[in-house]
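Predicting holo structure, magnesium ion bound.
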Amino acid sequence: MNLLELRNLHVAIGDRMVLKGVNLEVPAGELHAVMGPNGSGKSTLVQTLAGAEPYRVTDGQAHFLGSDLLAWTPEERARHGLFLAFQYPVEIPGLGNAYFLRSSVNAIRRARGEAELDAADFLSTLRSELSAMEMKPELLERSVNQGFSGGEKKRNEILQMKLLKPCLALLDETDSGLDIDALKIVARGINAMRDRKRGFLVVTHYQRLLDYVEPDRVHVLVNGRIVQSGEADLAQMLEQRGYDWLTELSQV
Amino acid sequence: MNNLLAPILPVNHSGQSTWEEWLDYIHAAAQSAASSEQTLIRDESWKYTRQPAFRTKVGTFATTEPVIRTGFQQTDEPVKGRQWDLMPLSRAYALKPDLVTTQFGRIARADARLMTALNTQAFKDGVFLYIPPGQVIHEPVEIVLTLTPSRAPAFPRVLILIGAGSECQVIERHIWVTDHSDEASEHALRVVNSVTEIHLERRATLTHYVEQQGDSSVRTVSLTSVCLDEDSFYRSFQFDGLGTLLRHEQDILLAGTKAHVQLETLALLASREHRDRQTRISHAAPATRSEQRVRSVVGAHATSIYGGRIRIQRNAAGSDAIQDNHHLLLDSSSRAMSRPELEIAIDDVRCTHGSRSGELDRDALFYLRSRGIDPDHARHLLIRGFTEEFLALIPSEPIRIGWQETIAKTLSRIGEP
Ligand SMILES: Nc1ncnc2c1ncn2[C@@H]1O[C@H](COP(=O)(O)OP(=O)(O)OP(=O)(O)O)[C@@H](O)[C@H]1O
Ligand SMILES: [Mg+2]
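Done. Tokens:
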């Protein structure tokens, strides 16, 4: 079964068309990478799927688990098992990270008809995930993402993914700005969650993440369209040749 | 001594008259101040708030004093073995006439402001707190001002003197609620005009918690006037809960070298409420430091006003002033105004001010919703985050927790249209 199916997806920001007919299928159990030059629309794609406001779908469809994804509010998408790791995680002054994480986990558990976790239960789960991500415990006391380093923010995103256990995770440049050790930790976090049911759509600029997290498919987004799809070796070829040779394919 | 601090009233009265005679004398002096040209000069800071209507009735109304409740059982008699005093002003006049007559009305001057003059000409008694030099008081001193069941205007008055090198915490609660808020027609309105004056001697430290709660039948004007001597530190945490109209003024005089003031305030405005906060900080000595952060959460159709004046005088070289003001608007009908006024007489100072007013951060709202949190709850978390930034600064845990609970309850009412 396909977790995600995009048909001819067109997305505009204001009057400007950014995605110009994206077709994509992510079957259950697979991890797909999306690569492409700056400004080609990668974040637009995953933000739109998560339901972000400024992005307006003008044409095409998006199905998630067979349902019309675009009909749902952002929180409904999350409750149905969609997760977005933000390229730029948002800072929220005054809202404690641990409290935020518990609110989120419980909002999703409630929607799934599961019992909410009390503070103590949650804290023990949280602590073990936190040490798996090699994050300092004080990051739980701070406000959400405030005063976090770039790498700490990205780890905090993966921490959320592990706590929320989505069916489909969209990871937007989670590897950018990570040092080698952090990259391995993040990769380990992703690999630990791979199974036959769960899918991933991983936006990245670099082969180095894909050295640790092996993709089933690689797609190249140029100027709002997927111009090439292939196996893992496509990423290696892009690393060597850049995007120029593909750009022509997008000029229609 | 700075001539701003000269007593307005001759002090040779001490010991020679009864409390009643002294009170008459003070009332008369304040009355002439209230009617003098100078006091009546139009005060620009009142531009956005209508003055409560008791102006026209000067001198003719009866007053009812607020009940003074303190954290201690008996305030009339000095407690044995205690090194400091908390008692009614009238009692202090009998026991420490020199202190009362020299300090009263010196910092909150009747000739400086009409509202202060009105308070000074009508108050019947007050609260007196005196910490002698060299005392470190660990247990917070609590002063609760509440209204007696009456409709007459109330004129609470508090005088706090902190001796050199002493340290203490004072909790001042102003609970301006009446039992007839349901029939809050214009003539049933209760007016409260309170004045708190505080003097910190050299190296003294005061942490001052002020909580105000009002209701729809009360109009409140209050002033806290503070004078800081050399190396002293005054920090206040002020929390305004609900109240249809509250105007709070803080006057700070940094009179001694290296004096330091920190003002942190949070106001919560339910729909249609009006809140006006004015701070005036004078840097009148070298290397003085002021920091203030004024925050408000503004419900639908409510109006939040902030005026902040900073004066850095010629003799205040090396001083540092920070002013920050943030109004969080909960609705497109919420209104906010900010008026910073900086008067800086010399170059060698640092002065920064910032003012923001706006609705909840959309990116933050989306981030929370993308984590499965519904929009109402997401909004609630963001507003709470805003109030937590204030609460996180509060050193006293019992106060922080108490206010946290009050804020949580209040916020659930603010959301209502
Ligand atoms: N909120 C927005 N408002 C206006 N323009 C936007 C907005 N978000 C994206 N854009 C524009 O849309 C285009 C695609 O941006 P997008 O962020 O999707 O690119 P990207 O492929 O993720 O790039 P990068 O690799 O730099 O992250 C860019 O030209 C960008 O400037
Ligand atoms: Mg991007």
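Confidence is low (pLDDT under 50) at residues 1-12, 54-78 of chain B.
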